[in-house]
Design a protein that fits this description.
Layout: H1 36-50, H2 55-62, H3 66-73, H4 81-90, H5 95-110
Helix pairs in contact: 1-5, 2-4
């Protein structure tokens, strides 16, 4: 008998399968990682509201159109670094501070729960090099 070649396409996933597909409730898709634009928008909105400022006030101070800033805050637009810096400065933040706050939010949302302190840690057996 001859070998038959399957007519089905071979699918190579671009992303690896999740390590724990059963991480959520049964029947629910696994949670997706947050998008950077969503995190930055949430930080901008949170900072603006903490200062009790309107979006119009911040948009004018940043010289950004109000509809565009609204889209950025809602995570609908991927803003350039210039726009993010202008919005951050209008809120009294530096670009680095804004991105650091967004990074902290990303870390908080994606870092798995830490082990309890009672669990002993293994000593590091690696090699450390110093220059």
């Amino acid at each position: 008998m001859s070998d038959q070649v399957s007519d089905e396409a071979r699918v190579i996933p671009l992303r690896p399968a999740p390590a724990r597909p059963d991480a959520g409730r049964p029947g629910e898709p696994p949670p997706r990682e947050p998008l950077w634009r969503d995190l930055v928008g949430e930080v901008l909105r949170r900072e603006r509201r903490a200062q009790e400022r309107t979006i119009k006030d911040v948009a004018e101070a940043a010289r950004i159109s109000l509809p565009y800033l609204s889209e950025v805050e809602r995570g609908r637009k991927e803003a350039s670094s210039e726009v993010l810096a202008a919005a951050a400065h209008a809120l009294g933040l530096g670009l680095g501070e804004l991105l650091s706050l967004a990074h902290g939010e990303l870390t908080r949302r994606t870092t798995p729960h830490r082990r309890p302190a009672a669990v002993p840690r293994r000593p590091y057996d690696g090699l450390a090099l110093a220059a």
